[in-house]
Design brief:
- With 330 residues, the protein is an alpha/beta fold.
- The protein has a domain at 15-37 and 111-228 and 241-323: Rossmann fold (3-Layer(aba) Sandwich).
- Helix content is 51%, strand content 7%.
- It has 15 helices and 5 strands.
- It starts with 14 loop residues before the first strand and ends in a 7-residue tail after the last helix.
Length: 330
């Protein structure tokens, strides 16, 4: 398939889907992955680990050793040898990362790859280091609906104590990450950044996908709307909706979110909701609610900073390799 060129977007550039957790990024990823030229795997998580362990000029053999240790890469069906065949003797960090994703795309007969990992919304500068020249599709959803989805989602207990707990904490994270992505797009990659609304994607999926393809330099493929064929809902515990076509729905927060939670969310992120064109119910939250919102934002920033320091130190430690053993090594 011949690729069209889009202003500022190379026809073979990596495609990075941005979006806060529960904003519909899994749906958009499934649609894009159904394109015959584009392969986007499940959430990676390992890019920050590899960066913190290897930096801009990784040692080839040490990098490959870590590739063999990372469970998610094995889950993609990619081996150390698959990456080694695509890796130069003295690779840069972007070249080393590209070798992993290229192996995944090649195995599926596709010439272009992408990534969708909401956790990277807190690692935007690293994305540009790892995927220089990437095209960024930022999926934005009304944060109150995203909060409802996040809080009702069935998850196993997480050791990530930086993850939000409750409506207010989620509102603080939603505001922080959406603003950061918009700032990143305007300052770092204005010609390679495009916003897409979740509400538009589910209401008019073909039109939204045609616009996305034009931005990415891809021909539109009807197969993108058939992403749900063959999906087993019983294996998609957190994303059962992927087993059916997208369903446009009413803003659930209006009926299902308690008024006190709406006020708390809007006290924290109301200005951003207005900036994005969403209606708000409490244009003048109570003073006590606003003060609590400021505290929530400050607490989130401290949790993230503390978590980042601890995790970075752990990943650079020799104990990381002992914990992440290659298969067959006891």
């Amino acid at each position: 398939m011949a690729l069209k060129q889009s202003a500022g977007t190379s026809g073979d550039a990596p495609v990075i889907v941005l979006g806060v957790s529960r904003s519909g990024t899994t749906l958009l990823k499934a649609m894009l992955d159904a394109h015959p030229e584009l392969a986007i795997p499940s959430e990676s998580y390992f890019v920050p680990q590899l960066w913190q362990r290897h930096g801009q000029t990784p040692d080839r053999e040490a990098f490959l050793d870590d590739v063999g240790r990372i469970t998610r890469i094995r889950e993609w069906g990619i081996s150390r040898e698959d990456v080694a065949r695509r890796l130069a003797e003295r690779p840069s960090f972007p070249e080393a990362v590209r070798a992993i994703y290229a192996a995944y795309a090649d195995a599926r007969g596709k010439g272009r790859f992408g990534d969708k990992t909401p956790a990277y919304m807190q690692r935007l500068p690293l994305l540009e280091r790892a995927f220089p020249g990437a095209a960024y599709l930022h999926l934005v959803r009304d944060g109150r609906d995203a909060a409802l989805s996040f809080l009702e989602m069935r998850r196993r207990p997480s050791l990530n104590w930086a993850r939000p707990r409750g409506v207010a904490a989620f509102a603080a994270q939603w505001q922080r990450e959406v603003q950061a992505a918009r700032r990143f797009g305007s300052e770092i990659a204005p010609a390679r950044y495009r916003e897409l609304r979740y509400e538009d994607l589910v209401a008019e999926p073909e039109g939204a996908l045609r616009d996305a393809c034009a931005f990415l330099g891809l021909d539109y493929a009807p197969a993108m709307l058939e992403y749900h064929c063959g999906v087993d809902p019983d294996r998609m515990v957190d994303h059962r909706g992927l087993a059916r076509p997208p369903l446009p729905g009413a803003r659930r927060w209006r009926e299902e979110m308690a008024p006190r939670d709406v006020e708390r969310f809007e006290a924290i992120a109301g200005e951003l909701l207005i900036e994005l064109g969403y209606e708000i119910r409490f244009p003048s939250p109570r003073i006590a609610t606003r003060l609590l919102g400021r505290l929530d934002r400050s607490m989130l920033a401290m949790r993230i900073a503390s978590f980042d320091v601890a995790v970075a130190a752990a990943r650079r430690s020799p104990l990381w390799a002992m914990r992440h053993r290659e298969p067959g090594i006891s």
